[in-house]
Amino acid sequence: MTIIKLTPEEEASYQEDIIDYDLRGRVYQDIPSVFRVVEISTSKMDDGSYIHKAELFHQDCRLSVSWNNDQSYSGVSVFDLVTPQRLTFRNNWVHLAKGGLQVIEEPDASINLFKTAPNSWVNYRDYLLKNAANYWDQMDEDCKLIFNQLMWQKDFFQRYCETPSSKDHHHNYLGGNLDHSVHVVDIMMALAKDPQIRVNQSILILIGLIHDAGKFKEFFYQASGQDQPVICRTPHAKLIGHKTLLMMMLGEAQSNLSDRIDQNKFLHIIHCISSHYGGKPWLGIPSPLLQEAMLLQAADHLSSEVDVHNNLFDQYEDRVSSNFHPIYRAQVYRSLGS
Question: What ranges do the domains of the chain cover?
Fold first, then answer.
């Protein structure tokens, strides 16, 4: 998408109903076609019309835009995904045609959601979101669509980015679950370089990114009067659990995409998410039977254990061992060279 910069003569003769950035003016700046709304405001003009202003975010470009119409409702809400309609650059302000911002209602496999996550959602943006966005770009179109189908609702994706991975164990901080998920993909991709390991890379990335996605319904933050809010568990966490929650989400996605994606691919993805070493088939919990599922089990365990271990020795900088640890049921020792 492009913004058009008009000459002074063109600005003087500017008419909203005939301007077309594809046919008139010169390119001012190349910009993404999709943004996330981070702020929206509306003011009534003297003539009874309304002017709407919005702040739009994409990791490659941020825009402040405005448009006029006869309605007090702008048609968009904060954190909607939108496409600006016919942009022009006038008097140092990006102006939109009367259509304003077009909300994107249906999941689109061409949109990398990680590139639209505002800074307020995620810590360590340069590392975390850029890595996640890079992994998303490496998936095939089917896996991109499955991820977007799961995360298209703005509150789902926001909570996915913000949720901790646990209350008292590993990655227990704002954005910890996304940090853990990207780390799991890092580990699996490193292991998959072994020529004896034969996996579908797109499925590997997808299951790493979503394997704990159900946790966004397990936790919430509660103000504590201290610097950091307290992590609390929801009834969903106590009564259902994140694996079952994710299975429900995947079942809905499978139904919505039944005519677009090979059901055998869904079968493999669901197996990777639901299987577990020590699983009991008669309870509906199979052991991992695919190499992707085996790698996920190994990487998930390693990522969580490494985070706990590192945090222990961040607290005990001069010690070679920790106190008795209730999870390990033993003392934990510092690695040589750490």
Answer: 2-103, 113-315
Most confident of 94-98, 172-176, 217-221: 172-176
Please give the average per-residue pLDDT across 153-174, as a whole number. 83
Compute the distance between CA of residue 315 and CA of residue 336 in angstroms, rounded to an integer: 17
> Cβ(160)–Cβ(178) under 8 Å?
yes
User: What CATH code would you report for 2-103?
Assistant: 2.40.50.140
Q: What is the mean pLDDT of residues 308-325?
A: 73
With b meaning 16 or more CB within 10 Å and e meaning fewer, what string describes 89-115? beeeebbbbeebbbebeebebebbbbb
What are the tens digits of pLDDT across the range 61-73? 888 888 887 877 7
Cα separation of 112 and 108, whole Å? 9
The CA distance from 160 to 79, in Å, is: 14
Q: Indicate the fold that domain 113-315 takes in CATH.
A: Hypothetical protein af1432 (1.10.3210)
Up-side HSE of residue 311: CA atoms within 13 Å toward CB? 13
Single-letter amino acid code for the residue at 6: L
> At a CB cut-off of 8 Å and minimum separation 6, what does 128 contact?
122, 175, 178, 179, 182
